[in-house]
Amino acid sequence: MLPETILQYLKVYYAILTANNRFSNDGQCPLSLSVGGDAALDAVLEWIRPEVSRLVGFDLAPTYSYSRQYAKDEVLTRHRDRPSCEISVTASIQIPKGAGPSVLHLKPPNSEETKVEMLEGDGCVYAGTEIEHWRERFSVDGYIQLFLHFIERRGPNYPRLMFDGRECLGARYPDGKPHTMDHDAVNAMLLKEFLKERRTVQELKKEIAALTESMKKQGSKIEKVGDQLELAKSPQQIVLNSQ
Hints:
By secondary structure, the protein is an alpha+beta fold. The chain has 2 domains: about 5-180, Sandwich (Jelly Rolls); about 185-243. About 40% of the residues lie in helices and about 25% in strands. It is built from 3 helices and 9 strands; from the N terminus they run αβαββββββββα. It starts with a helix and ends with a helix.
């Protein structure tokens, strides 16, 4: 997927980033080193966008680039990505000497699990928000992977998530780095939303029950008023009939 010249450039660039301590840690893979929204990597994101658009069959808009150097014993847990990653590319940049290919496991909806084995320069295009994906425990240090994320230009997240909330490609994030998928936080958020919706439904049920009871009471009052009117009419009818 990546031409040899681009691949070699990225290896040199990663060495420069490492020498200047530009990598950090994230909550998704805390043992590993990562960098996100880097200007040079965002350039690769935009450079490859037309080709990825051609492969998927519709126009894409760039969101952000991300890269990780996986550490020994690291595990990328099974997950789906956040909305900024509707279409994603994962590309193998560097494989440790003597190690096997970079392996990504995937579980598409209503399909069997599969895996993609990548050599340096190979890549995989997938729908990150729909397909579960993960990596098993790494036995050695040094696998470097580049992630390039896009959204559909005619989709519901465009243009809101274009550049992943930044002013443009290469721009810094307000809090310094992209938000990776924190699964505990996501689960907590989903639970909170579920409970919120549940409370809303329960409140609506209570309101409906109160309105129903109020209507019953109003109906009873109307019946009583009707009976009183009938009683008020009766003496007059009796007098008229007697005349």
